[in-house]
Amino acid sequence: MTPLIDTFDRVHDNLRISVTDRCNIRCFYCMPEEGVKFQPREEILTFEEIERFVRIAVTMGVRKLRLTGGEPLLRKGLPDLIRRLSAIDGIQDLALTTNAVLLAEQAQELYDAGLRRLNIHLDTLDRERFKQITRRDDFGRVMNGIETALRIGFPVLKINAVAVKNLVEADIVPLARFGREHGIEIRYIEFMPLDAQGIWDHGKVLLADDMIAMLTREIGPLREIPDGDPRAPATEYEFADGKGRVGFIASVSKPFCLNCNRIRLTADGKFRYCLFAIDETDMRVLLRTGAPSPETDQAIANAIRQSVKDKWIGHQINTSKFVPPPRPMYQIGG
């Protein structure tokens, strides 16, 4: 087996798979409130197609999977896909990112199917600000989902919070305190230019260093956790009193492109070597051309390898050369 290595010697073993572009909330930095056009269902990959793609990717060194959306819990029969993927020899880690609106109803079935890692998107613990951000009144359902997941005993549960300047400053410390109380790592994500409405600019980014200063001032000193995964997107810290962890995904202020190990498959079967990629490779066409065979599988493997070989050095957000991707986050996959 030859691993997926690009021309900058980055090894790619982490595959993010979007299972739907549909979502049941409307975060202003991701989707318009009205008039969203979703992919026709016949253009969305089937579970069989996703499983086949993963099996091919595993032969090329992929070991970690994350299921995303849109909102993945909207995909009917998702536990069946989790069972299929967790049974593939070579997969060492399978995770799910969700907004948790539907989690309380599905958490047990997901756990029974083999899921053990959850990342929950939640920017605030304030119901009114939640409504402002998501344009939906589902805060209670999200909290119920978190409580249910904790009660079931998911061993890894993290909260992802998007940090938009002049909006969520009041939420940074309460989220960290919530995480300390419940044993949940909070991950703060700098606001990135992936929205559908072109509202992003540098001035709206709440920087990781500023958030660290807030937490240090209000809760206590933070110390960076040594020996972390150098290819992980988050820089992780623990509070000096030993109670609680936080992480920062500083894609804007401290890009980590040179350590990137991630590749992506969209719900409609487009393969992307970067979240911000301009170009995509159409894997759906390859998956639906001819019956599965060593020859058609090899064509898919060749396309994966070529795309990784073509991967650029990085997204260049902080330069005049940056061009936003033509598709917003909900279509690409979180």
Overview of the structural elements:
By secondary structure, this protein is α/β, with parallel strands linked by helices. The protein has one domain: TIM Barrel (Alpha-Beta Barrel). It has 10 helices and 14 strands. The strands form 2 sheets. Strands 9-10-11-8-7-6-5-4-3-12-13-14 form a 12-stranded mixed β-sheet. It has a two-stranded antiparallel sheet with strand order 1-2. Helix 3 runs parallel beside helix 5.
Q: What can be said about this structure in brief?
A:
The chain has 334 residues and is of the alpha/beta class.
CATH level-3 fold name: TIM Barrel
How far apart the termini lie comes to 29 Å
Please tell me the total number of domains.
1
Number of helices: 10
How many beta strands in the DSSP annotation?
A: 14
CATH class group: Alpha Beta
Structural class: alpha/beta
The CATH H-level homologous superfamily? Aldolase class I
Main sheet attributes: strand count, strand direction, barrel closure: 12 strands, mixed
Global morphology:
globular
**H/E series, N to C?**
EEEHEHEHEHHEHEHEEEEEEHHH
Write down the overall mean pLDDT: 92
Please bin the fraction of helical residues. 25-40%
**Sequence of strands across the biggest β-sheet:** 9-10-11-8-7-6-5-4-3-12-13-14
CATH second-level architecture: Alpha-Beta Barrel
Q: Specify Rg, calculated over alpha carbons.
A: 19 Å
Stretches with pLDDT under 50, minimum 5 residues: none
Strand content of the residues, in percent?
15-25%
